[in-house]
Model the fold of this input.
Amino acid sequence: MSGTSPGSVVFDVNAFLDRPKFGAYRILIFALCTLVMTVDGYDVFVVGYVVPALAQDFGVPLPAVTSIFVFQTIGLGLGAYAVSPFADRFGRRNIILICTALLGVLTLAGTFATSVGELAVLRFIASFFFGAVVPNLVALTSEYGSRRSRPILVIILFMGYTVGAGGGGSIASALAAQFGWRAAFWMGGLTPLVVVAILFVLLPESIRFLVLNGDRNDEVAARLRRIDPALDLSGTQGFTIHEETSGAMPMIALFRDGRTPTTLLLWLSYAMNLFVLTFIASWMPTFLRVFAGVELKQAGAIAALFSLGGIVSPLLLGYFIDRHGATRVLAANYLAAGVSIILIGLWSGDATLAAIGVFCAGLFVIGGQGGINALAAMLYPTEMRATGVGWALGAGRVASVFGPMAGGAMLAGKWSAASIFATISMPIFIAALATVCVRFTRHTDAAPADRAPPPYPPPHAGEGREGASAIIGTN
Done:
């Protein structure tokens, strides 16, 4: 109800954000976050598309490049663990700006590497900062969205990541074939620096985070008016977000008040899916060259179908999650992913059939990653959201370290394609089971979002519920 006074001393920001109207300002914030995800998706997966060129330039066999993937994946996990809690304490915006800038600088530094070891160390440090960016993008996107729109926003956010990984992968393969692998790294380093300049001017801090930090009421009011210029805040003396707060450190709160089973099951789902995703993204172009006998450029194009599948699936996944609940839909999605991975191995001798299998695997594996990130954003409140998503991603990254290692070992051991992909399908089936079990834990907001948002202005907006709201007064 634009243009009317809230009519209460304390303004309920959650009720305001849950209104059906999204508006140009929130669309801008969402677009900026998606842009960052797109650029960073390219940077994380660029190594997988230039493995043959790297090996040739450094004069090493293909399996020797495994250490780059391993170090990169360890960096992603450590960054998610180490930096995410700082965002719940100091805000999302600064972490996003600093880490994106450092990712670009360190990717550029990789162009000066002269050995696998040097590049592995540089990718480790660059990935450390990238690992901190993703949970903050998820948190910022979620915290400007409504309860009902949150799952689809996070899922679409990861479409940007997929576009960067897939479309950018084709560009990286072409650059590597034409100019060498360093050209792909130059693109991956300069683009984030341009994006950071844009973010510095346009990206705001999370409005829900600002409410929880009660000394920033002027900023909250300014953000509310950017969302709705006709909003009248006269007479408002403070802001509230009616959601659960624990008062504990975010890392501890993940295991308090009955959240332990939810958190551990979520970590297991992340771990299994990211193990498989990293395995396929790291080694698919190489496997296609070995088993299907295709050239580097064609292998890169077919491998890019894995990411293309992940671009197609999120909107459908979001549609079904909205109507049937995240856990049911994600479990079914993971089952389909496992079957698709098995088919890649069975069809690997034929490049066309293998391409179909790769596309289907991307449809469900990458789609599932977007879905599990949306589920994590739904499970945790503002005070621990960046930590909750970040530590779940960290758990996934720890497991995904073994994806590239497994690929290198299987390649060195001369496994058949059918054996490789049948084995790699098993973790996805475990993810399906773990996701189903999340449904039966205490702390879940993953039921279908079929209830109407609360009325605006909400009745009794100034009346907080002890233990379930954060009411911030003016200073």
User: Anything to note?
Assistant: The chain has one domain: 10-450+464-470.
